[in-house]
Structures are given as structure tokens and as C-alpha cells.
């Protein structure tokens, strides 16, 4: 029986793929006002600005490839029963070969109807922009299928269920600033080992975290050695 390995990832997981993090210096929130581009109010005030913010990030994603860290996590499915819970909206875990990925904050390569939450569409990489006037089958404007600040996180219940079953819990590339994602650490059973892979210190709600002070690619490699 393979041990259940649950991995919580954030923007740092994709940094080595050339995708900007949010809170490192020069990060996305240094360059864009969060309330204008990542809130429902911002979208209501200027939908075109918001659509173009995500169109730009989608084009960058289409040029990015999974890094060695993404690939190593996919490889670990040979030894472990792996679940990835990611805050990232990129599809790099899937493109690296991870087979079970829960996106807490949505997916950049999907669009959703503004009039019916159940209408979700895959975005064609060859025509990846969402524009004003792009409508769902019921005639409502399409928006990014992404969780903005202040919006509900529909996948959090599933993420909590998965986390409670973890026999090993790994945190990679997240500053643990944003809830409810950061709160998942409270759902890890107390005798379950927790590893943190991050080049910087990250304050967490547990004192017994094993910190691998490296980037994702080198860090996952070291983790695999530790878990042999
Ligand atoms: N490898 C691993 N970790 C890295 C790397 C790297 N190469 N480079 C940076 N990091 C770490 C940083 O040290 C930091 O702890 O990644 C973390 C990035 O933190 P944030 O930029 O805050 O990103 P994240 O925690 O994913 O943000 C959470 O906030 O803006 C919202 O919805 C957005 O999902 C996002 C959420």
C-alpha cells in the first residue's frame, strides 16, 4: 500500500518555470493593484482591464514549461499515493504528469459564464484571450474561471478531506499568507511529518516543520532522498 503524500503548492512552485510569484520583490502584486485585477469589484468596474490582465498571464503560461520540481512530483507517484493541492492557476502540474491535482484558486486555461457558475469551458491555446463579447451558451459574458479575493473557494472542502488523510504533508513555494489555503496545515494530523520547500523562511502554525531551504527543483530532489 503506497503512503498518502499530500503536497500544497503555491506560486514559488512555478517560479523556476519563469512565472512570477505574487509577494516576492517585483512580484505580480508589486506591479498590479490587487483590488483592480483580482476582485469581483475590479471586474465589474473595468472588465476589459481584468480580462487583459489574465490574457497576458495566459499567454505567458503558454510559453512556460513544467520545471524539474513539477516533474519530480509527478515521478513520486511511482512510490506514493500523491495528491497535489495547488493555489496556482497554471496547468504545469498536469503537464508534468501529476494525475490528481486540486486547484483551490481556479484554472487560467478555463473560462466561466458570468450568468451560470456551472458553465465552464476549456480555453483553446490557439485562441487564448477572453474578450468582451465572448459569451456562454446562455448569452452571458465569459470571465476567467479563477477565484478572486472575496469569492468562495469551492474546492476547499475536498482539499480538507484530502489533507486529513495525508501520511506525509509537503508545502512548496507558498508564503502561507492566504486563507483558507494556508489553513489546510491545521487539517494535517499531528503525528504526520510536514516538510517545507522554500528558499526563504515561512511562518507556519506548526513548530515541527522540516524546512528544506531550497528552490522547488532542488528541494523536491532532496525530499525524495529523505523519503527513500
Ligand atoms: N522555489 C520554491 N519556492 C519559491 C521559489 C522557488 N524557486 N521562489 C520563491 N519561492 C517562494 C517564496 O519564498 C514565497 O514563500 O514562493 C512563495 C511565494 O509566495 P507568494 O508570492 O505569496 O505566492 P502564494 O503563497 O502562492 O500566494 C497565495 O495569493 O495572490 C493570491 O491567489 C493568489 O494563489 C495566490 C495566493
What is the count of β-strands? 9
Low-pLDDT residue spans: none
Bound molecules: adenosine-5-diphosphoribose
**Outline, from the CA principal axes?**
globular
CATH topology annotation of the largest domain: Rossmann fold
CATH class of the largest domain: Alpha Beta
> What Rg, in angstroms, do the CA atoms define?
18 Å
User: CATH H level of the largest domain: which superfamily?
Assistant: TPP-binding domain
Kindly state the percentage of residues in helix.
25-40%
Taking the alpha carbons of the first and last residues, their distance comes to 15 Å
Tell me the CATH architecture of the largest domain: 3-Layer(aba) Sandwich
**Overall pLDDT metric:** 97
The amount of beta strand, in percent, is: 15-25%
Largest sheet: spatial strand order = 3-2-1-7-8-9
Descriptive report:
- The protein has 228 residues and is α/β, with parallel strands linked by helices.
- The chain has two domains: 1-19 and 66-105 and 153-228, Rossmann fold, CATH 3.40.50; 20-63 and 111-146, SIR2/SIRT2 'Small Domain' (2-Layer Sandwich).
- It has nine helices and nine strands.
- The strands form two sheets. A six-stranded parallel beta sheet has the order 3-2-1-7-8-9, with helices on both faces. A three-stranded antiparallel beta sheet has the order 5-4-6.
- Helix 7 (92-96) links the parallel strand 2 (80-86) and strand 3 (101-103).
- Helix 6 (68-75) packs parallel to helix 9.
- It is globular and about 55 Å long.
- It starts with a strand and ends with a helix.
- The mean pLDDT is 97.
Amino acid at each position: 500500500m503506497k503512503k498518502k503524500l499530500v503536497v500544497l503548492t503555491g506560486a514559488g512552485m512555478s517560479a523556476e518555470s519563469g512565472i512570477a510569484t505574487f509577494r516576492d520583490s517585483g512580484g505580480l502584486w508589486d506591479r498590479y493593484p490587487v483590488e483592480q485585477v483580482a476582485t469581483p469589484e475590479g471586474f465589474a468596474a473595468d472588465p476589459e482591464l481584468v480580462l487583459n490582465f489574465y490574457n497576458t498571464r495566459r499567454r505567458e503560461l503558454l510559453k512556460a514549461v513544467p520545471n524539474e520540481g513539477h516533474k519530480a512530483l509527478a515521478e513520486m507517484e511511482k512510490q506514493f499515493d500523491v495528491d497535489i493541492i495547488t493555489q496556482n492557476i497554471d496547468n504545469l502540474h498536469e503537464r508534468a504528469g501529476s494525475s490528481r491535482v486540486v486547484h483551490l484558486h481556479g484554472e487560467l486555461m478555463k473560462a466561466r459564464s458570468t450568468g451560470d457558475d456551472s458553465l465552464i469551458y476549456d480555453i483553446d491555446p490557439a485562441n487564448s484571450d477572453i474578450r468582451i463579447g465572448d459569451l456562454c451558451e446562455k448569452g452571458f459574458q465569459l470571465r476567467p474561471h479563477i477565484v478572486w479575493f472575496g469569492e468562495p473557494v469551492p474546492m476547499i472542502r475536498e482539499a480538507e478531506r484530502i489533507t486529513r488523510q495525508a501520511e506525509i504533508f509537503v508545502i512548496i513555494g507558498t508564503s502561507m499568507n492566504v486563507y483558507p489555503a494556508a489553513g489546510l496545515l491545521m487539517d494535517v494530523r499531528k503525528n504526520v511529518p510536514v516538510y517545507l520547500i522554500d528558499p526563504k523562511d515561512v511562518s507556519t502554525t506548526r513548530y515541527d516543520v522540516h524546512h528544506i531551504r531550497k528552490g522547488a527543483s532542488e528541494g523536491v530532489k532532496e525530499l525524495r532522498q529523505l523519503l527513500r
